[in-house]
Design brief:
about 270 residues; alpha/beta
Length: about 270
């Protein structure tokens, strides 16, 4: 597997340079075309506390502001991308999460930043994106303009999502200096060790040498992140939402923790 088409999302309320540079570097590394994308939407008519609603004139002002910002982002994208690279630009006035999910059908990899989705009309909801894109999603760490991915941590769980993530991440894993497959051992079950060994053999068949680690303690995202920092990982590969998303957000979970933490780049599949 190789990434031949990468779509990079430019958030309308974030500086675009860093994420565009990440996209350019990845496109150069894998010989892929680069698709720049940006979207935002105008909030619908809603009642206010005084019983009033947003009027059409206000909505048009908001739409004009979005159009201006999208034009600025396009200009910055086209300025940064080398002329020798095959690239294109797409934009829309609609939900950024929905537009990016739909656009993912024409890409092998989706790249986005770590912006908080406080306003779903102007920022991507990473959780919904991972669930709906049908493609692996790379969430770049904050304030990085390149992704080395020399030490990669695979957050292993013997579930469909983790298996899918490893297969999707093979191009990154093949170029890494060190790959660590780790799982949190809560039950001291021999089958956990067996599954780790099977993953290592699978990777070896792809020419990737990986070591395996058992992390003692409760299965929580903070423990996983602490281990990632201890090995100086600059990319975490994981499946997403091994439990239902509702349960993750209500009671906490590893996926939720990874989405909320922006110190390390994360590669997620569902």
């Amino acid at each position: 597997m190789c990434y031949k088409s990468i779509v990079v999302n430019l958030a309308v309320d974030a500086p675009p340079v860093s994420i565009v540079k990440v996209g350019i570097e990845l496109a150069e590394r894998f010989g892929a075309r680069l698709i720049g994308l940006a979207a935002a939407d105008v909030p619908p008519l809603v009642a206010t506390g005084d019983g009033m609603v947003y009027e059409g004139e206000i909505m048009q002002v908001q739409r004009t502001e979005i159009e201006k910002r999208l034009a600025e982002l396009r200009a910055e994208f086209e300025r940064l991308v080398p002329a020798s690279m095959f690239s294109e630009w797409v934009q829309a006035i609609c939900s950024p999460t929905r537009f990016l999910s739909v656009s993912a059908r024409g890409a092998d990899l989706v790249v986005t930043g770590s912006e908080k989705a406080d306003n779903i009309f102007r920022a991507v909801d990473v959780g919904s994106l991972v669930l709906g894109a049908g493609r692996p999603v790379l969430v770049a760490a904050s304030n990085v303009d390149h992704l080395v991915a020399k030490t990669v941590l695979i957050a292993w769980k013997d579930a469909r999502e983790a298996r899918r993530a490893i297969a999707d991440a093979l191009p990154f894993l093949a170029k890494a200096n060190e790959v660590v497959v780790a799982t949190i051992d809560t039950d001291h079950d021999k089958s956990i060790r067996d599954s780790l060994a099977d993953v290592a053999v699978f990777l070896e068949h792809h020419g990737i040498l990986a070591r395996t680690e058992l992390i003692a303690g409760d299965a929580d995202g903070d423990r996983l992140l602490a281990f990632a920092r201890s090995i100086h990982a600059d990319l975490i590969v994981s499946g997403a939402y091994g439990h239902s998303r509702l349960r993750e957000w209500a009671f906490g979970g590893i996926t939720r923790t990874l989405i909320e933490d922006s110190s390390i780049s994360r590669f997620m599949s569902y």
